[in-house]
Design a protein that fits this description.
The complex is a heterodimer of chains A (304) and B (343). Chain A folds into two domains: 44 residues; 224 residues, Orthogonal Bundle (MetI-like fold). Chain A has 13 helices and two strands, in the order H-H-E-E-H-H-H-H-H-H-H-H-H-H-H. Chain A has a two-stranded antiparallel ribbon with strand order 1-2. The longest helix of chain B is centred in the middle third of the chain and has 18 residues. Chain B has 343 residues and is an alpha+beta fold. In chain B, helix 2 runs parallel beside helix 4. Classes of the chains: A mainly alpha (304), B alpha+beta (343). At the A-B interface, helix 9 and helix 10 of A face strand 6 and helix 2 of B.
Chain lengths: 304, 343
């Protein structure tokens, strides 16, 4: 056959050639083009709104007109720091977030370990699907499902009754909140823990056994320290997601289940006191800054 | 225990291991003496690493028996065996310092801190890493990590030290240095070494005895000289050294390349030498030596090696030229008939 039948790559247009040559000659241009849209988003939308939030926290409102008064003062922060109500709410939020994080870490570790190091490829895929599937359902649907379980006439009490035990009656309590949060954020702990455990080379476990360590000793001395960054990375999710939530406290919490988010919500929606809400919002931001600093020191960001 | 010296350090009896339908280790019998440097050599997939893992206890044999210093350890887990392993990827704990890595085995055994520190220090000195105990493994070079892995195993004074291609990741120069050093350390500490490698030269250089493995079986056990000079099977002849196998009058035999003489034009062969004509197909210059790949007129191909005594600028001129090769029957080794490719 003639040479024409050989498939030639389609010739690029002169413009395309000139452009790629241009990029090649100016190596800084390519990353600039790649980074401009996300950076613009980040700076304009994210940082600007955060800055606005921080600034408005130092404003106040006219109590009669509820108009924002752009006058610098520390009143909002003074109220938060001196009123014990807010301390109680902040304490409850942080305590719940901590308990949820610990619960999830304890629940996630064995499952993640099984997925990463024991399960066959098939079982692993199935478990992955099982872990991620709830994330496809609406958050609200999942919380409502828990209401059906924890209700006075719910599945839990019914089950307890049918085996002859007294009812638990934990619906609309802080315990219910802890349960629901732990359930909802569990996948966010499992995935990073799994990723960290999967990266531990098999030979390290062999080496520990070879040097005389039994299974538990190996887990304590080798597996846990190496998986810790993954667990801490997961805890960033579980902790911060709980810290900022205000829907679950409304739906499954009781009379004394207000979170920081609920107070913020009330101040924006009902009291129309946006400066105070902004001031209150800086509290979880400050807590997360401290938390992330500790996580950074523990090497959590190397595992992301 | 007056006859302790007579008990072999390691004894394997009919050890078998299957992965699925594949017999990776297919009935191995082995005796390794105390203080011996014993090498398992074979191509990848020959089962040598699996055999090592069976000895260490990371894998359990399907059948057979493993004895360490006279004690049956077949069903004993690795953490209770008197073996220690130097892993191919070193398997150093990245979150522990070099000293903590080396002292880990002693810590588990409950050796007191002072004794432990002293033994770790000695081990560091032995592998010439004194002063690096405080470093993390990732702050060391490949060669240094290899030494730490060795120290971490040796410091426990195991009955048998298992080494799984420990020099595989090092460059040639460093590898050759470490070969000599390993051998020296082995003599110094007197521990039995069972060494796995696919590098036949490494096996010949370091070992007291070599077992050549293929398809899960041992083809031949012997000293390096025996294995090289008197290969038991065609596989061994081929794997250890260059394959120079000829079939003449119904007899298959090996001629090692360095034992073949290339006769100059008109040069008479010595009395008793076999001479065969051929043509040089290729000349390969390799620094210390030059290899001549010769197609014999009778059909086979032989490799002949010459030391580069003088500058070999003109070696290439032999390419395509007729040549006569000569060897004495003393330098040939007849291969067993039945053992060749019986499978």
């Amino acid at each position: 056959m003639s040479i024409e039948t050989i498939r030639q790559p389609r010739p690029k247009s002169a413009g395309a050639v000139r452009f790629s040559g241009f990029l090649w000659r100016l190596p800084w241009l390519r990353p600039l083009l790649l980074l401009t849209p996300p950076l613009a988003w980040f700076v304009v939308i994210y940082f600007a709104s955060l800055a606005l939030l921080l600034i408005s926290a130092f404003w106040t409102i006219n109590p009669f007109t509820t108009q924002v008064v752009q006058q610098w003062n520390l009143d909002n922060f003074r109220i938060i720091l001196t009123d014990s109500t807010y301390w109680t709410i902040i304490g409850r939020t942080v305590l719940t977030a901590s308990l949820v994080t610990i619960t999830d870490a304890v629940l996630a570790f064995p499952l993640a370990y099984y997925m990463a190091r024991v399960a066959s490829r098939r079982v692993q895929t199935l478990l992955f699907a099982a872990v991620l599937l709830p994330l496809w359902a609406s958050y609200l649907a999942r919380v409502y499902a828990w209401i059906l379980i924890l209700n006075h006439d719910g599945l839990l009490n019914w089950s307890l009754h049918s085996i002859g035990l007294p009812p638990a009656n934990i619906g609309y309590t802080n315990t219910a909140m802890w349960l629901v949060f732990s359930y909802i954020w569990l996948p966010f702990m499992i995935i990073p823990t799994y990723a960290a455990l999967e990266r531990v080379p098999e030979s390290l476990l062999d080496a520990a056994a070879d040097l005389g360590a039994r299974r538990w000793r190996t887990v304590r001395d080798v597996v846990l320290p190496l998986a810790l960054p993954g667990v801490v990375a997961g805890s960033i999710f579980t902790f911060s997601l709980t810290l900022g939530d205000y829907i679950t406290p409304i739906l499954v919490g009781g009379a004394n289940s207000n979170f920081i988010g609920n107070v913020v919500y009330a101040n924006i929606g009902i009291a129309n006191n946006v400066p105070f809400a902004a001031a209150l919002t800086t509290v979880p931001v400050a807590i997360m800054v401290v938390y992330l600093t500790i996580a950074y020191k523990l090497g959590a960001f190397e595992a992301l | 225990m007056t006859n302790a010296a007579k008990v072999p350090a390691l004894k394997l009896e009919a050890v078998r291991k299957h992965f699925g339908h594949v017999a990776v280790v297919d009935g191995i019998d082995l005796l390794v003496e105390r203080g011996e440097f014993f090498t398992l050599v074979g191509p990848s997939g020959s089962g040598k690493t699996t055999l090592l893992r069976l000895i260490a206890g990371f894998e359990r044999p399907d059948s057979g028996r493993i004895e360490l210093a006279g004690r049956d350890v077949t069903s004993i887990p690795p953490y209770q065996r008197e073996t220690n392993t130097v892993f191919q990827d070193y398997a150093l704990f990245p979150h522990m310092s070099v000293a903590d890595n080396i002292g880990y085995g002693l810590r588990i055994k409950g050796v007191a801190r002072q004794t432990r520190d002293k033994r770790v220090q000695n081990a560091l000195d032995m592998v010439r890493l004194s002063g690096l105990g405080g470093r993390r493994p990732n702050q060391l070079s490949g060669g240094q990590r290899q030494r730490v892995a060795l120290a971490r195993a040796v410091v426990n004074e195991p009955e048998v030290l298992l080494l799984d291609e420990p020099l595989g990741a090092l460059d040639l120069k460093l590898r050759q240095e470490m070969q000599i050093e390993l051998k020296q350390i082995q003599k110094e500490v007197g521990i039995t070494f069972v060494y796995v490698t696919h590098d036949q030269e490494e096996a010949l250089t370091m070992s007291d005895r070599v077992a050549v493995m293929s398809s899960g079986r041992i083809q031949q056990i012997g000293t390096p000289v025996e294995v090289y000079e008197q290969p038991a099977t065609e596989f061994v002849a081929d794997f250890i050294g260059i394959s120079n196998i000829l079939l003449r009058d119904g007899v298959r035999f090996v001629v090692r390349p360095e034992k073949i003489r290339m006769l100059a034009e008109g040069e008479p062969a010595d009395v008793g030498m076999t001479v065969e004509p051929g043509r040089v197909a290729q000349v390969v210059y390799a620094g210390m030596t030059t290899r001549y790949i010769v197609h014999l007129d009778r059909g086979e191909q032989l490799v002949a090696v010459r030391q580069n005594m003088d500058a070999q600028d003109n070696a290439q001129k032999f390419e395509g030229q007729p040549v006569r090769l000569a060897w004495t029957s003393d330098h040939t080794y007849v291969l067993g008939k039945g053992e060749v490719d019986s499978r």
